[in-house]
Amino acid sequence: MTIQNKLLHEILKGRDERAGEIKKLNEENLGNIICFTINIPGPYKLSDNYYFAFNEGVLALEEILNAKALKRIKRMSGFEAYFISDKSPIDLKKLTVNLEERHPLGRLFDIDIFYKNLSKISREQLSISKRKCLLCDSPAVECGRSRTHSVEELIICINKLINEYRENNLQEKYK
Question: Where would one find the signal peptide in this protein (predicted)?
């Protein structure tokens, strides 16, 4: 098995494990489930830069939800955090979409809200437009499906976004 195939296998395994984690939390019936990951194309999802972006997202979510992450997991498929909330799924989706739209790293955030019956609430259900591509103005899902941009182009853009955010925050911290 090539390294690429092994990594792809690990990513698919991670998705299955994430679904299992969500199902387990649902069975415990603690409330609506918020699953947080970051959007990173390609097979390598565990760099220090990606962890930094993930951690910034977790901190921002903890602030808007007024709750600590229930669980954080590191898999080959990427970093994951889980939250539980009694707020309505629609209110949660509005809060999290607002975070995705307004946080400087929000374009990297992937925040899914699951009802107690495991159905997922989407942007479309709230008449909110699809997310835009990092590199152009088209819907991200269309660019991803048609492979309009290379993984390398996207990774360069993502790392630039994270590095600029880090630099700006460091400058703000020492003003």
Answer: none
